[in-house]
Design goal:
18 strands; mainly beta; nine-stranded antiparallel sheet
């Protein structure tokens, strides 16, 4: 019975390794720390594995590169970002990051080898892509390659001042189940700004 449990546990570990990729800090400079939920801050090191729900924190003048398979996220200074999901299943890689504060630059694989469902959320909006390169600080989005669908958080309002029509169809659903009619497609070479009215809790895109 004990042997069966060991075999089952080993199989589950191998299955998890096959499904969940390894998120790794491939490079960093300055003060960079990682914390698991309920744990203490740990000093980052090159090659350090970042687990699901871990938060990366960068100090003043610091930065880090988080490698997620064939994708890379450059974490700027004074940033806190959490790895919410990193899952590969049936040829699709789902990556979800939560940007609490600060700024990042994402390089998402567009080779077509695997389908990418990649998104970075902030308290104000979500940037969702299939393969591109962009910079995002939760409010301002700059697209350097490809296109990004920007979805405002919650019941926020949208005004078309830049970008294209709603992503994923007339209802603005970008395919992640969170569409609320607020998605805007931002194309290569474009930028867009989310203006937040804290008195009303709403946001507009300009």
């Amino acid at each position: 019975m004990k042997l069966k449990r060991i075999v089952l546990f080993t199989a589950l570990v191998l299955l998890a390794a096959a499904i969940y990729g390894n998120a790794v800090i491939s490079d960093f400079k300055g003060k960079v720390e990682v914390r698991s939920p309920g744990g203490a801050w740990r000093t980052a090191a090159a090659g350090m594995t970042v687990e699901l729900a871990d938060t990366i924190s960068t100090g003043f003048g610091a930065s880090a590169v988080l490698s997620l398979g064939s994708n890379n996220v450059i974490v700027s200074s004074l940033t806190r970002m959490t790895l919410d999901a990193f899952l590969e299943k049936e040829g699709t890689v789902d990556t979800k990051l939560f940007l609490r504060v600060g700024a990042v630059r994402a390089q998402v694989d567009d080779s077509g080898a695997k389908r990418q469902n990649f998104s970075i959320s902030s308290p104000y909006s979500t940037a969702s892509v299939r393969g591109t390169e962009f910079a995002f600080d939760g409010k301002k989005l700059n697209v350097f390659k490809g296109s990004v669908a920007l979805l405002l958080a919650g019941s926020a309002q949208r005004r078309r001042g830049a970008g294209g029509p709603p992503a994923g169809g007339d209802d603005g659903d970008d395919g992640d189940g969170e569409g609320d009619g607020s998605a805007v497609v931002v194309n290569e070479g474009q930028s867009i700004q989310v203006d937040v009215d804290f008195s009303t809790g709403t946001a507009t895109v300009t």
